[in-house]
UniProtKB/TrEMBL annotation:
It is found in: Membrane. Gene3D superfamilies: Aldolase class I. One of its GO terms (cellular component) is plasma membrane. Its main location: membrane. Keywords: Flavoprotein, FMN, Membrane, Oxidoreductase, Pyrimidine biosynthesis. This is Dihydroorotate dehydrogenase (quinone). It comes from Helicobacter brantae. The keyword Translocase does not apply. The lineage of its organism: Bacteria, Pseudomonadati, Campylobacterota, Epsilonproteobacteria, Campylobacterales. Belongs to the dihydroorotate dehydrogenase family. Type 2 subfamily. Catalyzes the conversion of dihydroorotate to orotate with quinone as electron acceptor. GO terms for biological process: 'de novo' pyrimidine nucleobase biosynthetic process; 'de novo' UMP biosynthetic process.
Amino acid sequence: MYRYLRNVIFKLDPEVDHHIVEFCLKHFAPLPLVNDFLANQFCYFDECLSQEVLGMRFYNPVGLAAGFDKNATMIEGLALMGFGFIEAGSTTLYPQEGNPKPRIFRFVQEESIQNAMGFNNDGAVKIAERVKKIYPFQIPIAINLGKNKTAEDALKNYEENLKVFKDLGDFYVFNVSSPNTPNLRDLQNESFVKELFSMARSHTDKPLFLKVCPDNVIEQTLKVCESAISGGANGIVATNTTMDYSLLRSPKNIGGISGRALRNKSREAFYEISKAFFGKATLVAVGGIFDGEEAYSRIKMGATLVEVYSAMIFEGPSVCKKINKEIANLLRQDGYNHISEAIGVDIR
Ligand SMILES: Cc1cc2nc3c(=O)[nH]c(=O)nc-3n(C[C@H](O)[C@H](O)[C@H](O)COP(=O)(O)O)c2cc1C
């Protein structure tokens, strides 16, 4: 059904669609009857998918990637879409408008998205007020932390941002890999990342993650991940969008690419990261995951959790349930009783 609906939805500007979805999830999803309907329709429970990770309980391994709920306005509604966890943000310390529009483009045939949003968000204080109203929540909430475009002292900016969320959120993801804030990706260097996580560790005992891009030379990415872990990070989220515009037939000249076009590049980066850090850090795979088969292959490659964004846009709200069902079937086909038995089997 979503395939038909999508033809209508895709006639509108992506940001207009996003605001419509946000309005519906915010206002209608919490209504009792709607709430029950959505939960029945989209949530999937299977003991074989439920796991405890870093002290948090995930009833399934499929989370919503950062950027969809930048302002934490939809967490309750999104939970009803069946996600095992939600990554809100990226938030920045101060509110900012982001880049001029249009800044998000769909490539329907290639089931890909190119975005140059530039961390448009309401700012940490306002977003934290929203999270406070629902936290602690029924599923883990991650806060993805970004940097203000004009902040000169990046470390301080991240630090103040983190401090606003100190008692909110179950874990934190530091985003130094968005292509849409000038020079942000330059922060993916060993010394900054080490300082970043040492700073973060001095403020919180909660799990900390680094989100990396898929575009750097892999040896450099591995060094940066190593620095993050030695600074106190518990895990790596791989990957953010790519700036490899050769992956689309008619790309725009701005922003980062997500979706099917990103899949192989993201998977390759994830594989290398996992070969180096499986068993030493908790790994979260994101980038071009649209079905249970791809999700399961990343799990076997070492991902404890996976995330989706573009798949929600192209496959619709039932995608999370579909992926979870498929993972559960694939686990059983391979003779496993529980997801933990499959994590990392391909690289062990
Ligand atoms: C419109 C849009 C906005 C995004 N904003 C953020 C963001 O604010 N922070 C972040 O870490 N990643 C952001 N991302 C990247 C996603 O979290 C994810 O890493 C990427 O889209 C790859 O996953 P996918 O192929 O499943 O979409 C954004 C992606 C899109 C499409």
